[in-house]
């Protein structure tokens, strides 16, 4: 995993774990890698992964079974989507609108490009 400089590593790891959940690689109530295992895979300090897992527990994306490890929460995918949607609407969308406005990009052009994007994704992703 390539880490970016503009965001804390534990948050980037939380995004990585969340992606695995959204992609269906880790299912509800399935055990996820241990702190040490994930730290080794990502070549980070185990304390960083523990901080990530603490955050994801607070967000009700994962849960801990004492002595057994961490597991994907039953409603994890929906929770991740809700959290990401809120973050997008609060932080990223206003920046997008600012850029669109500064560059005089019309809503029609945005709609056309979004429709093209959806067609391309439909061709790539299996149904």
From TrEMBL:
Key words of the record: DNA-binding, Transcription, Transcription regulation
Record-annotated HTH gntR-type domain positions: 7-75
Superkingdom to which the source organism belongs: Bacteria
GO molecular function, one term: DNA binding
InterPro entries: Tscrpt_reg_HTH_GntR, WH-like_DNA-bd_sf, WH_DNA-bd_sf
Record bears the keyword NAD: no
Spans traversing the lipid bilayer: none
Entry protein name: GntR family transcriptional regulator
Species annotation: Hymenobacter aerilatus
Origin organism lineage: Bacteria, Pseudomonadati, Bacteroidota, Cytophagia, Cytophagales
